[in-house]
Amino acid sequence: MGLDYLSLLNPSQAAAVMQIDGPCMIIAGAGSGKTRVLTYRIANLLEKNVDPFNILALTFTNKAAKEMRARIEKVVGPEAKNLWMGTFHSIFARILRSEADKIGYPRSFTIYDTQDSKTLIGQIVKELELDDKLYKPNLVLGRISAAKNKLISVQQYLNDPVIKQDDEAALRPKIGVLYQQYASRCFKAGAMDFDDLLYQTNVLFKDHPDVLNKYQNIFKYVMVDEYQDTNYSQYLIARKLAAKERNICVVGDDAQSIYAFRGADIQNILNFEKDYPELQVFKLEQNYRSTKNIVWAANSVIKNNQAQLRKDVFSDNEDGPLIEVLKAASDNEEGKLVAQSIYEDKMNHHLSYDDFAILYRTNAQSRAMEESLRKLNIKYKIVGGLSFYQRKEIKDLVAYLRLTVNPNDEQALRRVINYPKRGIGDTTLAKLINSAEESNHTIWEVVSNADKFLPTRTANPIVDFAEKIKAYTAVAAKEDAFEAAKFIAKNSGMIEELYADKSIEGLSRYENIQELLNGVKAYTEDPEREDKSLGAFLQDIALVTDADTKDAQSEGEQVTLMTIHSAKGLEFRNVYIVGMEENLFPSQMMITSRADLEEERRLFYVAITRAEKKLTLSYATSRYQWGNLRSCEKSRFLDEIDPQYVDFKFSSGPAGSPMDSAFGHVLERRSNLIPAAPRKTVATKYVAPSDFQPSDTSNLQNGQRVEHPKFGFGQVTKLENQNGSVKAIIQFEEVGEKTLLLSFAKLRIV
Ligand code: ATP
Ligand code: MG
């Protein structure tokens, strides 16, 4: 045995770890070791010689699964690699990959991302000549998604009088028809959206008892983390899989249920007790993560919710500092205060930037934070937001790859049929789509037989395009994902097109394509991957969740910026919750009822309980929203924290500086009272001189100082020769490290 884990658990945790047969549930407060129990419970099963292939553990993010696996590996060794672990979506995508043909999909089905789904809905709305202001893709997709998560089929949707009434009352009677069209178009394209991965798994298990039986025999032990945020579709999958052996263990915290808007149903906890009367319930009450002040503050907030299972959470940790509240005059000043506070804390307490997280309610709030962090030269990473895979050039290449694996993929086909330009105009495309609809063929069937549907001149470029895709499919059948992707990137003309664009943006797009290819290479070179095919790679990247992007950009110490939703389950030494204002947090859009307000409050509870040692809250009294400066009122949530846990310091500011009387327990700091951090702060953006002339850099040396028209001054720290082209790594004074290809970069040696 690699690690004596029982000594790392308290008696209730150990009891939950040792209980391995029969159903079990742990609903306990934040930071009480639920995830830890799940981890060591799996280690314990493996030590009792349960085959890792028989254990299924469902986590909230892929990253959480990875971490859990690594911990288990420390106890039991490499056997841990064979565990079935991952998010509901990734595990059941994997299962559908080998079973989809039974429900009429190709095994090489495409996974549509949210953007694909919205585009498709937009297209259908247009084709049906519906009002696109009434039938906004986002809204329609939301309705369809809610239906799927409740396992409401198209037929049920169309026939249900209550749904009909609802949609009619909302003046959107055609949602059912849109659902029908959308589902049939996805099916024809051999595509599943995210909700389908769960919905179709349910269909598979319902219509094919033999398949269900097979997986019931495989998954002898089922475990679910963050159970409070499962939706009905997920609940049913877990219940079906565990129906035979009844070895199911779920852990969660009703106070942290924050995904009701996506169909998560707290009812699943109550159902669990009904489904398994022989259930064993474990209570964990001690919080090991946070200081007493943080735990008490969190308790005092959640107490305001009526719909909460009562539980007492306590901490044996130190009291720790009180919770600090920063008040700023504007969002920009808020950013400044937070960045300075991080800088000072890091210096004064010898911390790493990895110890800090800034959490916000909406992604848009990151901008002001980013700006201030950059000015203090503080490195940061944003989790979620526009991820690498959402960039245009990456989506273009991925569309080619998707088409290669599944030529019926309508959204991919539309994206690249005329990119790079090959003279296939919108009218021709419209004709193709029409022909497909009329003849009941898929668009690909029409495209690959274009000469039968269109006059020769129009058909020619389409026939060429179809030939290309067929050739790619042949390559992908023989080669691994990397060889196939490289071939496709070149042969499609994409590389040439991007290479020709010598602007900085063009260069960065070109580098992104290289980066994607590097990613494919790393994927195929990973010795633990069995399936190195292009299809497997595409599935992997389609399932990257918001919270998973954290690792992708990690380099050195960095402050983490993310939404509170993505922070679930995580912990950081010092946490900043910013934008504590009415209409922002609680969000204006979300508080039309008590239930909504309570969900926002649970979100606040999640945010508070991410902090280990120090929690700081901030708000601004004015903020730009939709381009207008608005004055803001501080959040009601601030007043809900028992004031004894909040820092009570007066600003040493100018005499008579107004105190917020209703809010005495506030540390008021004004950014101009805080001495500027000693690091270089650049307030003005570098502007290149108008006579900027790049020099010849063929003899550039390490250590040389250079000037770049956009990035300003910097020093060469490394030169690398890569297949004949030289890459320079340059530490720029304002923008930090950049890697540039010398043949493109306009540099002046100074
Ligand atoms: P959340 O509700 O946020 O998901 P959780 O209940 O899953 O939290 P964990 O993340 O498992 O809690 O544990 C919180 C922290 O406390 C972790 O750093 C964990 O290692 C630590 N911890 C848990 N139990 C113990 C223990 N018995 N002794 C020491 N540390 C512990
Ligand atoms: Mg947890």
TrEMBL record:
The protein's matches in SUPFAM superfamilies, at most eight in alphabetical order, are given as:
P-loop containing nucleoside triphosphate hydrolases
Q: Which Pfam families match?
A: PcrA_UvrD_tudor (PF21196), UvrD-helicase (PF00580), UvrD_C (PF13361)
Q: Which PROSITE patterns match?
A: UVRD_HELICASE_ATP_BIND, UVRD_HELICASE_CTER
Which terms in the Gene Ontology molecular function aspect does this entry carry? 3'-5' DNA helicase activity; ATP binding; ATP hydrolysis activity; DNA binding
Could you tell me the EC number(s) of this protein?
5.6.2.4
Q: Which reaction does it catalyse?
A: ATP + H2O = ADP + phosphate + H(+); Couples ATP hydrolysis with the unwinding of duplex DNA by translocating in the 3'-5' direction
Q: Could you name the Gene Ontology cellular component terms for this entry?
A: cytosol; DNA helicase complex
- Quick one: a GO biological-process term for this protein? recombinational repair
Q: Does the keyword Hydrolase apply?
A: yes
Leading EC class: isomerase
InterPro entries the record matches: DExx_box_DNA_helicase_dom_sf, DNA_helicase_UvrD-like_C, DNA_helicase_UvrD/REP, P-loop_NTPase, UvrD-like_ATP-bd
Quote the record's binding site residues for ATP: A28, G29, A30, G31, S32, G33, K34, T35
Q: Where's the UvrD-like helicase ATP-binding domain?
A: 7-291
Record domain UvrD-like helicase C-terminal: where: 292-569
Entry keyword set? ATP-binding, DNA-binding, Helicase, Hydrolase, Isomerase, Nucleotide-binding
Q: Which Gene3D superfamilies does this chain map to?
A: 1.10.10.160, P-loop containing nucleotide triphosphate hydrolases (3.40.50.300), PCRA, domain 4 (1.10.486.10)
Q: Would you identify the family this protein belongs to, as annotated?
A: Belongs to the helicase family. UvrD subfamily.
Protein's UniProt name: DNA 3'-5' helicase
